[in-house]
Structure formats: C-alpha cells, structure tokens
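Two proteins were folded this term; both appear here.
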Amino acid sequence: MSIAIPLALNELEDMRYLLRKADIEGELQPDDERRLREYISRQKPTEAQNSDLGALILVGLFLLGLYVTLLLIENGKDPELLR
C-alpha cells in the first residue's frame, strides 16, 4: 500500500530547511513564509491560510515528521532519506 505525499523530495527538503531556519532565526522572511504556507496548504489548506507563524511551524513539523516516516516505511528505512 502506498500513501501519496503531496510534495516532491526537493520540496520536502526545502520544507525541512525552512522549518530549521525558523527554529534557528526565530522568524522567516516573507518569501520563505509564503513557500512554507504553500507546502503546508497542499495537505492542510485551512491551517496554512489562517495560522500565525508559530502555529504554521507546528503544523509543518507534524507534516514533515509524518512524510519522512511514510517515506522510510515505503523505502525499507533507507538511511539516504535522512540526509
């Protein structure tokens, strides 16, 4: 059984980068926030549109964890996906 993830691997990596950047810097530039909202809106459109940055980051972290877990399960826990 395969579950579709609405992001390409490069988009998933960009989402991870943006969440990490928000963690380190405490904020995102407007273009970065727009990209993060766009990625999250593919799975959670209401949360992406109506959330402040803190809630957006929380939803993003949840989705990122879910997507990485699904990829690891589907690919037999390939460690290459963790890089």
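Next, the second protein.
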Amino acid sequence: MEDKILAKSVRNPGKPEHAETLMGHTQMVVRSFQILFGPGTSTQFSKDWIRFFRLEKSALKAFYLHGLAACGLHDTGKANNGFQEMVSRKKGIQVIRHEHLSGLFLYLPAVGSWLKQFPGLDARILFAAVAGHHLRTSFENFAQPLDADLKIFRVYPNAIMEILNFTGKMIDPSVAEIELEIPDVWDFDGSMTFDPVRLRDDIKKKELMKFTRELKKNPSLNGMVMAVRAGLILADSAGSAVAREGKNLDSWLKDAFGAKLSCEDIQLKVIAPRIEQIRAKKGYFDWNGFQDAAENLPRRSLLLAPCGSGKTLAAWRWVKAQLNRKPAARVLFLYPTRATATEGFRDYVSWAPESDAALIHGTSDYELENMFSQPEDVRFGRDYTTEDRMFALGYWYRKIFSATVDQFLGFMQQSYRSICLLPLLSESVVVFDEVHSFDRSLFSALKRFLNNFDVPALCMTASLPPARRKDLLQDCGLTLFPSESGQFDDLEGLAGMPRYTLHRIEGQEEAESIAVSACGMGKRVLWVVNTVSRCQMLAKKLGAVCYHSRFKLEDRKQMHDTVIQAFQKERNPILAVTTQVCEMSLDLDADVLISEVAPITSMIQRMGRCNRHARLEEKRMGQVYVYTPEDEAPYTMGDLVGVRAFLQEIEGGVISQRKLEALLEKHGPSDVEVEKYSAFLESGTWAMSREYSLREESHFTVNAILDNDLSTYFDLRTHKKPIDRLLVPVPRRFAYNHPKLQRFPMLAPSTYYSPEFGFLEYPLEEIL
C-alpha cells in the first residue's frame, strides 16, 4: 500500500498518475510555490505579497522558508487508511481530517526535534498553515474524530518519513534525514498502540494557546502566519488545478504573474474607447477640472462628488496616474451589488481586450451571455468567460476587473475562493465604489482591509454620513477629494444647481393621484417603496412597470432593460414602481419621484434618480413627493434617526445636491459603528471559514428555483451550463427541499410567481 500513497482521486484505478500520488502532488505544490515566490532570488510577486501584508522586506526570507516547508508537509496526513480508501474509490471513511493529522505529525517528539535543526523554522507557524489550509480547523474541532463510532485508523510511517525527508533536503540539505519510528495504528480510545488524544491536548494547551495569545500582541508575527497560510493555499490550489487540466505548471504560472499594466494600457484600453462611446451618444465630451485633478490624488483617497459629475471617469484617471507612478499587475473596480458591477463592466472594463477583462460576481457567467449582441458593437462576439474547471484560478490571467466587493474582500472571513483571488488583490490598484451603501459588516471589513493591508485604494460615492467619513479619513488615513467646497467651478456648479423641490404628502392614496396625473402629462415617474409586497400591489393596481429583487434572474434582467429604456425617452409617460434596488442599479432620469420615507442616505440616492442629467442652462426642475408608510419595515427606528429633521429642512424649497450633502452632515447618523470580527485577521493559529458573515445577510429570503423549472434545471446541469437564470430569491417560508437537489437549490411553488410581478407572498390568481 505504501508504494502507492495517493493525494487525489485517481482517474485510472490501479495506475495512478504521478501528480495523483502524495509525493507527486507535494512536488507540484512545492514547485508552484517556488514559481510564485522564488526560489533563490525573490520574484516581484513575492515582494508585492510581503508588502501587501505590511511585513518588512527583511521578512521575505522567513516567509519563503516557512512557506516552502508548509508546502512540503501540508498533506502528510493523507497517509492514512481512511483517506486512501476514499480516493481509491473504495468505501473508506475518514476517522480524522487529513490536514488535522498533518498538524499532529508536526508535534510528534521525533518530528519536533528534527524540525528544530532547521535554523529559523518555527513549528507553530508551520502548524497554523498546514492544519488550516482547508479553512476547517478550530480550537474546538481540531483532531476530533469525524464519527463518534469510529476511533481507530492506520497511518503509513514510511510514506510520512519520505515526505519529511523530501522537505528537509529541499529547505536545508545539511540537516540529516529523520528516522521515523511511530506506531501505525492510532486509537482515539487509547486501547490500541497509540493515543492521539494526549498528543492533541498537549499541542492545544501547552503550545498553541500561548501562541494564539502571542499573535494578538505581535502584528508582524500574525502577518507572517496569514501570509504563509494563504501562500500555501495558493500553491496547493495551483498545483492541483494545473495538474488536473494537464497544463505546464511553469509556463502557466509565469505567464499569469508576468507583465505589469501601464498608464498607457488604461488610456488605450479603457478610457479612450469609453470617451468615444460617450461622444457618439451625446455628440460631445469634455474633461472637467475635477476629473483632471484626480490624477494628482495620493494612493489612498476618498472621492466625494455629486451624481452625474463623472466620478467613474475621474477614478479611471486616478488609476492611470497610480500606474504611471508605479506599475501594478491588476486594476480592480469593486461594487456593492451585482447590477452595479455588471454596469461597470459593460461601460468601462469590457472595452479592454477579452484576454484582459473580467466580470466576477455570483451570476456573472449568465450576465456575460449575449451582453454585446449587436454586430455593430466592436465587442460583439468576444468571450470574457474563463475556464470553468480552473475555478477562481481561471482569473489569474486577467488584468482589469469589475466585481462585487465580496469576491475580493471575502478573504477577510476566510472564504477559500476569495483567498484564491488574493494574489490579484495583492498586486493591484483598487477602487471601491458606492461605499455609502455598504452595510455595517461590509463597511467594517473595508476599514479593516484598509488598515491592515497595503494597496493603492480609492473609495468613492456621492454622499457619506459624517461618522463614516471620519472613519475613512482619520482612522484609515484616506485623503479627501475635493478637499474643500468650491474647489472646482464646474463641480460646484453641478453640486449647487437647483435640481428638485420636495413636497410632503399624506400617504399612498395621494401619491397614487399624483402618479396618475403626472403620467397623464407625459411625465416619467419613479415610485420607490420599501417592501416588495407594496411594490407588487401598487404596480398591479396602477398598471405600472414592477421592478424589485424577487424576480428570476432572466426576468429581472429583462425588467431592468425595460425600465432603463423607457426612462431614456423624453416626453414619454412611464410609471415604474420599484424598491431599494433602484438606489444604485438603475441609472435613470425621472421627472417625478415619489418615495416612502427611508434613511437619509437612501433618500439622497433616490433623489439622485430624479432630474439626474440636468444641465444648468435647461432650468429643468424635478418634483419629489415623500410620505410615511404604514410601517417602517424593513428599517428600524435607529435607521431613521434624523430623517424627520432632514425632510423638514428641505420641504417646499429648491434643493441642490450641495444642500443635501450639508444636511447629511448635519442630520446623518453619527453613531460609531462597532468593528466586526474578521476571521482572517483574528483567528490566529486556527482557520475556519466564515464567508457568509461578510455582510449582514438577511435570513428572510433564500435562493430557489420554481418547481416548474425543475426539468430545465437538470437539462442545464447535464449540459454544464449556468443555472443562474432560474434562481429567484423567495421568502424562506415558501422554500422547501427536493430529494434530488440535496441542500441547494431549494424549490418554490410556481403558482406564486409571475414574470411581470416576481415572486408573490400569495398565489398568483389572487393578484390577477
């Protein structure tokens, strides 16, 4: 058995490929690490990696030593009978997780003594990387039996010793080989030859509890642990994926982490074609002073500018300037929602060659289908997708990204996929858009990212509550731009331009009368309510377009396009009833806005959809009507602090975006937001994924497919096509499991769904 110890499931039982064996896989992982980070002279990527973790340049040698050793020793725990039977397609059951067993091996007395012979090698750092590289290790679950009824397993000492000596010769050939003599039968009950319980408990209590406390007091040591563990995860995922797909490891990795982007690349590939698109649509294009000045901003800045001021192009000018000062390998534009990330890709990133550009979010594969379907579009026929079987590593070849912030900051809660994107983040220039809309957890992750990792970063939005502005400027060290009011005449003219008047009205009945009357006068009317059920009810009652989050993706995409196109036509009567989704994902220009009372930042975002593209010479004035709904849901009283005073100050008067900004400063939330736990930063020795806690996710809805789409779902899966188009968020009480679908996706009754109104909370016949 020991001559064929496996690391992977075999394609051809009885004749495993070298990369499927434990030694072969270990060699691939080691080689991946060497290509990325060394050997001998450090790579540019390794320097970026060390800088990203805020480690001193002198730490590179220690990082390389521990990373290389971790790659050599990470899978020794696979040399046990349960794992071997499992990957050999036999009915084997693992008694212990293999990476936990790898961690135990490091503290066997003979192994511990042997490791001490390597100068500078810290077994505690090795343990944190090796035992945690699958992000399934905690103080509570470490080296616990996976099944309470299974306690005995067999290890293969010769295979373990072979890997140990391979690793030792690699990191220091002068150290003598280890002669490992350990019992081959381990028993958690201690009735057989070797009891792992005592070893486990000694490690936890005598070694690792003290180490965990030390990590909390020593940021540099903690940074080393994070860098080594993440480096091992990258090398392991690369060594596995490249071997699985039959690619040449050296050339694949070297090509992925080779060339840098220049300022000329951004000008030619993104900025210039976007300008031509704007000029073709509007007939003109001129840079304004605020956009020109963006090139002079520091590498860490906060850009606050009104809606319609050209913030995004200003941000690309900042990116261009950063690359001029110091070339970087990637550019990331990170957005709070899938819709805004998709728009950012369509308008900007997609102008780059398909080999450089990427869109990453939960449904990006579907969004990319037929995105550019018109033959006259120069992007027609381009394929922006990546190799499915390379998973996150498929993006390592791309240079310019539009993505949801979760995709790249998910590593803060130990998301494995996000950690696999970490090499791109570490050598990038990053823009965070619409930061006002980040919920408390996501904003905390942003702050902690800025304070603990080093990349050029620009945060931007139209308006920001005082407390959050203070957090970014004082606590995170960002530089405000513009630094003072009136700094740019063109921007000041836009911010100070009269845009709308606001009227308080009694309630929904009066709002209905206003909406019908305005449409009768040829106006474009946007009505924003705070709940999906009210949105559906009003849309049905008034014959309006209905747009919210609870549609099947394919229907939501169609509804989104319908709304956008309808509002692009002037003097074209249209009434759309929508929810909070309009606050960022709908770039439209209404003549009349009707809104339920919402938090101040939401009110400002909603008003930004009224008279959005106004020009001073047109003297056009939007009309805003606000009323209080019957209940505050989904908001709390805390969310609505200051709203009443805010509305009182603008009721009946002429409103500019500058005035809204001043009132947000005066009445906006000022409470200090509590810093949220970050598993990546704070778990220390241990590593457990908490990826679903990056945002304050509501447990009210779940993604499901309709029961009448079940056959379509299986057909898509059979043909290996995305099933995203079928997914619809539904209230949890309507979702149920299907025996053929396991845990995901769940099913929901199609009798509650309408392509026109989305998923309802009552059967379809009751609304139609």
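The chain has 31 helices and 23 strands. The first strand starts at residue 136 and ends at 137. These notes refer to the second protein only.
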